[in-house]
Amino acid sequence: MAENGYANAVLVTTEWLAEHLGDGDLAVAEVDENPDLYDEGHIAGAVKLHWRDDLQDPVERDVVDKETFERLLGGRGIGNSTTVVLYGDKNNWFAAYAYWYLKVYGHADVRILDGGRQKWIDEGRELVTDVPSPGQQSYAAQDRDESIRAYRDQVREWLEGGGVALVDVRSPGEYAGDLIAPPGYEQEGAQRAGHIPTAVSIPWASAVRDDGTFKSADELRELYGGKGVTAERPVTAYCRIGERSAHTWFVLRELLGYEQVRNYDGSWTEWGNLVDVPIEKGS
């Protein structure tokens, strides 16, 4: 059992990271919602992963293929045995997306910096602008782990058959159908607003404290269990494009140890544009 009652030791503290920077078997990567932040200053030795340019197929709306992923990680100095620590802005929402992404392709040792970029800054720790040049590594990805990813046809089947808990991690306004997308993202939404029927609303940020660190396991179990999202039921989380729901996937799967958790990364930009699928509105 990890600290704070978590099921897995998948978080590192700012103190731990500061002590281990430069370790030969450690790679640090910053993954921000605002990729320009990296250029303004980042943790020494950290490489940049751009959530769109690096982690999105340029033609299909999908994760990159296996060979592209292998080149990406190898080029960032990451080998199969490397411990990868991810961090970013917005309480680590895209860092959690990258974590899920690395697990899709089977990377063994991935961690998240608890509190992310902002906690590092709040503690007065150093940021640098020097861009590292890590040595090329050979990387061999595994086949995609489809057990942690959900697709639209699966979601439609689950609606008919029941049994799967759907968690809408967007803001209450998006869930209710008052907003198609968060403020500032008005051009990146869907044709219709609302939520998938049977989905419960548990905004992703409910899982973190004011300083961006994750709540304890007991607090998290109460948060999700109070809405009927328990370890006994298969769970699928969704948001708008799959990054906020990856954060919730990380909480349920990695911190709480739920065994059957999927991220529906098509999320509302897919479901809200589909023909002949049901939606609901209201809180």
Keyword list:
283 residues; alpha/beta; Oxidized Rhodanese, domain 1; 10 helices; 9 strands; 29% helix; globular
What is the compact description of this entry?
The chain is of the alpha/beta class. It has helices at 14-20, 36-40, 66-75, 93-104, 116-122, 152-161, 172-176, 217-225, 243-255, 267-271; strands at residues 11-12, 26-30, 47-48, 83-87, 110-113, 165-168, 200-201, 235-238, 261-264.
Task: Please render the helix and strand layout as text.
Elements: E1 11-12, H1 14-20, E2 26-30, H2 36-40, E3 47-48, H3 66-75, E4 83-87, H4 93-104, E5 110-113, H5 116-122, H6 152-161, E6 165-168, H7 172-176, E7 200-201, H8 217-225, E8 235-238, H9 243-255, E9 261-264, H10 267-271
Parallel strand pairs: 1-5, 2-3, 2-4, 4-5, 6-7, 6-8, 8-9
Helix pairs in contact: 4-9
CATH architecture of the largest domain: 3-Layer(aba) Sandwich
In total, the number of domains comes to 2
- Major β-sheet strand ordering: 1-5-4-2-3
CATH overall fold name of the largest domain: Oxidized Rhodanese, domain 1
Rg from alpha-carbon coordinates: 18 Å
The N- to C-terminal Cα distance equals: 36 Å
Helix content: 25-40%
- Beta strand count: 9
Mean pLDDT: 94
Q: Overview of this structure, please?
A:
By secondary structure, the protein is of the alpha/beta class. The protein folds into 2 domains: 3-144, 3-Layer(aba) Sandwich (Oxidized Rhodanese, domain 1), CATH 3.40.250.10; 147-271, Rhodanese-like domain (Oxidized Rhodanese, domain 1, 3-Layer(aba) Sandwich), CATH 3.40.250. The protein is 29% helix and 11% strand. It has helices at 14-20, 36-40, 66-75, 93-104, 116-122, 152-161, 172-176, 217-225, 243-255, 267-271, and strands at residues 11-12, 26-30, 47-48, 83-87, 110-113, 165-168, 200-201, 235-238, 261-264. The strands form 2 sheets. A 5-stranded parallel β-sheet has the order 1-5-4-2-3. 42% of the residues are buried. The model has no long low-confidence stretch (mean pLDDT 94).
